[in-house]
Amino acid sequence: MQNDQPPCWIETISSELCETYDKLVDAPNKIGNLYLAFSLQPKPLLAADQHYRDIMHNPESQSLPWFLELLASQVAVIAECQYALTHHGANFRSLLGDEELGEKMLQAVRNDDFADSSLFTPKQASLLVFGAKLSRSPENMTREDLELLRRVGVTDTEILEAVQVIACFAYWVRFINALGVNIGHERIGMYWRKGSAECSQPVSFRPTACFFGLFAEP
Fold it and tell me: 28-198 — its CATH code?
């Protein structure tokens, strides 16, 4: 079914922004709606994209990439941001490599239930509990929250990486929800299905472009 909704709830322009978008993707006419939402004031877009990539695609990260995507999905679930959840839930399942297990994990996130040891290690469960608290009530965070993580073996670097993801997506889900960004015809996430199998490689993109639904369907 065709989706004829506008990209978001505010005006967008594209023809004037080819130079900006050209720094992100090879085909400006395939920019996803999230990036179009920046079009009236595009200057923050490159910095926001770079910030996202430095957090989510850091080759020196100590955290598993699929777990960072799960933390991002958790922020989206709590904020009821379907756009972010659709893209990053797909990224999470792709990186995990197990669709059925991935859906069980996402359901546990939706239910705030991390006690099942067949789904999560103690470290992962503790980080998800931490993520839920930080997302819902950042004013209530205490030093003890970090001590609880350390007691189950979470390193300070892993704590920092988790906080960076949660804080980064706190920005994005508010941007998306406030402007009503519509998923439209975007290719979902960095990964896409070819037939019935999940591809293991991201869509063709420049090294500087790997956010959400950056590409619209051709």
Answer: 1.20.1290.10
